[in-house]
Amino acid sequence: MAYALFPMNGRVRLMTFNANRVDSRPPLKPPSDIASRPRGVALSSMASHRWRALAPLFVLVVLAALISVANPNFLEVRNLIRIANSASVPLTLAMGTTFIILLGSIDLSVEGAVSLSAMVLVLLAANNLNDNNYGWAAVAAAVAASTVMGLASGVIQTMLRIPSFMATLGTWFIGLGFSVFMLGGSAVRLVDPALRGLALSRFLGLPFAVWIAAAAFAFAVVIQYYTRVGRHIVAVGGGEDVAELSGINLVRVRIAAFGLAGFFYGIAGVLAAAQLGQSDAVIGDGRMFAAVTAVVVGGTSLTGGEGGVVNTLIGVIIVTVLSNGMILLGISPYVQQTAQGLMIIAAVALTLDRTRLKIVK
Amino acid sequence: MTAMLAAVQISKSFVGVPALSNVDVEVRPSEVVGLIGENGAGKSTLMRVLAGTHRPDSGSLTLDAKPLRLRNARDAAVHGIGMVFQEQSLLLNLSVAENVYFGQEAQFARFGIVNWRRMNLAARRQLEKIGVDIDVTTRTSELTFAARQMVELAKALTLEESTQRQLVILLDEPTSMLGQADIETLFARVRALKARASFVFVSHRLEEVLKISDRVYVMKDGRVVAEHAADAVTAPRLHEIMVGRGLQSEYYKEMKQEPPGAEVLLETSNLGVARIFRNVDLKLHAGEVVGIAGVVGSGREEVTRCVGGFLPQTNGMLSVAGVPTRIVSPGQAVKAGIGYVPRERRIEGLVMFLSIAINITLANLDCVMSHGVIDYRRERNLAVDWIRRLRIKAPSPDIACRNLSGGNQQKVVLARWMNAGSRILVLDHPTRGLDVGAKEEVYELVRELSAQGKGILLISDTLEETIGLAHTVLVMRDGEITARFDASRGRKPDQVELLRHMV
Amino acid sequence: MKMLDAFRSLLSAGSTGWLRNVAPPAVLLVLIAVIGIASPGFLRADTLLVILSDTAVLFVLAAGATFAILIGGIDLSIQSVASLASVILAQLLPRLGLWAFVVAILAGVASGFASGLVHVRLRVPSFVATLATGGVVAGLGLLASNGRAITIEETSRLDTTWMNQSLDGVPVVVIIAIAAGVASFLALRYTRFGRRCMAVGAGEPAAWAVGINVDRTKILAFTVSGALAALAGVILACRLSSGSPNLANQTLLPAIAAVIVGGTAITGGLGGVERTAVGALIISIVRIGMTFVGVDIFAEQMVFGAVLIGAVSVTIDRSKIAIIK
Q1: Residue-wise DSSP of A304-324
Q2: Distance between CA C73 and CA C265 in Å, rounded?
Q3: Chain A contact probe: residue of B70, B74, B116 with most A CBs at under 10 A
């Protein structure tokens, strides 16, 4: 549960909790508090809401402060640009994952989708293996491929009625497998200068990749807060049965969400290939853990309906800042995963609305 | 006055238990129709059939004398029929405006992008129509229950925009959670809207229903047993019709009600849970049934939850068999010898996917352990024994509990506590969802348990059942005990006497 | 749409009662038959023994995961725990000899316990809790090994070669796997703990209401999962004669898949280690069988993914899951 940028009258305003609006007498809770096991001290619900909403931002600020105290180079423009650059691909990826988690589902196919998209790009654009030189059309094809893969995940999950965990596990293997099939285990270099320029060339001091990631973020914000499909995704995640009663076609919303995620993964795959200058089948390795970490640390609830892409932005920045900080402070890279793990625990423990939780699975 | 919306000979059963039998009901233009009846009488089911969320097994609906087939709530909405649900149907993580227009955003969207300004404006207009001032950009979870009820009403009224005809708004127990002031507000809105819509209003509170309705239907055991103009009938008369059979002493096995013993099994003194109930003093003797009567919000549910260990007490004292005990978890209650039979038996009472045998032994596995491991043969024999003793209708002890009827499920729960040797039983709406035959069997069991010296704390759906089964009846209102009645055999109090202290 | 409905009703028909119980073994038999027909070399005794040996690690890992899934959660840390265990074994064998095995397993116990604690005390969903502890453990593995693989030297090999032998023709790893499986099965079926696991997974509110200490049961389940993951890591280390922080990479998801395909409900409460054994065999046979049937080595993962989806569609019991997300 985090702060939400809530659109009103075309302007975007930060939603706050207005004390005047709340009735002085708290509503009597309906008696069916089945199996709710109250724990810990129940803070006044409003104070704890506000704290919980802003916690990720608070964590980011504290983290940045600590690092810059230990190593002032952290705040150098060059380093900040470096941070933005390394956050580009994870941010784009995490945008897609966010929508699936908002739905209350899980998407394990991230790495397969990235691999697929990078593979398509690298084989269709100018490369060192064949004579193709489709340039931007290759980019379109790559994104299309991974979007189709996402739609497939959605179709499989809804039509065969299997949990998203299993459906995306399957599509992960299929996507990754297709990559392996086409690339045959070797790395193919991307030669097209324009495409490499995505990562290497700069605009206003920032690499294009950063701008593209920012655009992806803006696009995600529009979708989550300004489009019907976005609001329906949030609704389904928040209360699927209620949403259905109001006539929402759950199947369509689900498939759309997975397709949307695939779209973002596709862009991320293109960026990754551009950044690395090449692609092999394992280009996606480890990216799912990073994406889920970012989403969770940002405060989006795994049960769906709460949080969103703005939260994920903060989460990605936190994760990136953390790894950048560890490099600057000379901390062993091996500690990084440990630190990320501890961070997830801390983040979730702090931001979870435990007074409302009934069954934790 | 011709009917606008009519239900003709509607019947519906759930898992073999009839919920509605040949029900005829009509709603005329610009009127408020009251629908009353006890819990389980079929009011909610009827409403859901009218709203399109349930399909009847037989019978039909007509709208303006033309047959009406509803497949889902959307169909009903198209015809101007909307329902304001008891367990609210709002999405708490969206704004008020979004909820009012949920599913109908298309009219505000261009190229898939929603124009919030227009939707918020429209939502504000809808709320103004019912005279309510709520900031439409508020997140719905922040609103009070009463405010949410208003939003639900506004949402139902958006139907206006999809059809020209008169609307039918179904209100399912809208007042059960509201304070007096909020109820007045609701009624004022309803009256103001009568030109545009008819209402069907369900409530337990008879005076209320008579105040707002033009006509009243009384339902009982799935049938309509009476229809009156609201100004032609009084609340006590309605009550009489509702209850109908009077206190049939055989039904509640009153003859088997023996006076309780002297031993005090459970005693509470000044028991309270902050902001929910306080000053609860009760004594439960061996062989006694103590019933607690009260409306929703009276605190009686929470008292039983507290005794059962689900709701830790914040003040007062509780002692079991003379030993002061602090119960903060169900596990402690079980250890203290308290067996809780929950209202939501499918969720809290039984592990539905596991077998009868497993469910029976779950509270004390010691009884089936030999040499440190579970002895399946012993368990099975034990289960077979209980099945026989309680006359549970099941082909074998190994079938999953979800395959049993409600009554038999309840018996499994009771078997478990009897197996565990619980001396105190807390029965939370024990006959909810059971058909008449199953109810009688439960009453039989209650008498048997009393005869064995167990103490029973009971809350029930109906006042009649509470009085019929209990030795003593406590009445609660607004979190406190307001009256105590002796309900010994042959000296059962009248329901009207209790009602006075309940509302 | 009609065809889809028909297909779906066919699927759900297989979801109740005995038909569902029979589905996973049936799938296994069909697979063996198909592959056997396509490539008779598959059905030779020594091939099958190799398959069993290869499945051993997967099964032990999956058996641990079964406990976590049975109580209604999931354990995503098993891969990291297995790797860490291998690193610990490789590092400590020279110094502690056979006691290194004990330390490695204890590390798994500690990790599982931590996962359970985080899940239960901090009320963090197990997906996240184990993702996190998995990350921490992975980091620890990297630290302990300095990021590289550690070969188990000749001198220590004496302590590990027994793992690679056979007893009366049955490979030792298979014996260990079977032993672990049987122990798990007995625990789940005949102990109080096992009974509580089923109750917590199948109906946590009811289990809580009946006085079961849900917290303790969950923590114990995750501890077992950690211990078995460590056992799997240790077996793997012996087989490969090396310990590395990446040793068990790519084993997490096949392990979970083995549990689900075997027929244990992903929501918990139903199923068991015996089902997981069937599931592990299916996963293993699909992978190995693909080579036999002549599937292009580079196409293997695609086929695996497709078969996985197919298998789950058939074996999953939709009646037990309220909302399929």
Answers
A1: SSS--HHHHHHHHHHHHHHHH
A2: 11
A3: B116
The ipTM assigned to this model is 0.86
Q: Is A171's CB within 8 Å of C305's CB?
A: yes
Q: Is A56-351 assigned to CATH 1.10.3470?
A: yes
Q: What's the average model confidence in pLDDT over C277-305?
A: 82
Which residues of chain B lie closer than 8 angstroms to A247, CB-CB?
A: 72-74, 77, 103
Nearest to A174 among C208, C268, C302 (CB): C302
Alpha-carbon distance B99 to B109, whole Å?
15
Among residues B173, B220, B251, B205, the alpha carbon closest in space to that of B19 is found at B220
Give Cα separations from B434 to B40, B48, B443 (angstroms).
9, 20, 12
Chain A residues touching B109 at Cβ < 8 A: 227-228
| Number of domains composing chain C | 1
Domain locations in chain A as residue ranges: 56-351
Closest by Cα among B78, B205, B99 to B147: B99
- Tens of pLDDT, residues C3-25: 655 555 555 543 455 666 777 88
What's the number of CA atoms in the CB half-sphere (13 Å) around residue C274? 10
- This prediction has a pTM of 0.83
CATH number at residue C54: 1.10.3470
**Domains and their CATH numbers in chain B:** 5-243 (3.40.50.300), 248-337+422-503 (3.40.50.300), 349-421 (no CATH)
The pLDDT, as a whole number, for residue B200 is: 94
Which residues of chain A are within 8 Å of residue B120 when distances are taken between CB atoms? Answer: 8-9
**B373 touching chain C per CB within 8 A:** yes
Q: What pLDDT, in 10s, does the model give residues C260-280? A: 888 887 777 888 999 999 999
* DSSP character at residue A206: E
**For the stretch C50-62, what's the b/e string if a residue is b when 16 or more beta carbons lie within 10 angstroms of its beta carbon?**
ebbbbbbbbbbbb
Of A28, A222, A306, the CB nearest to B177: A28
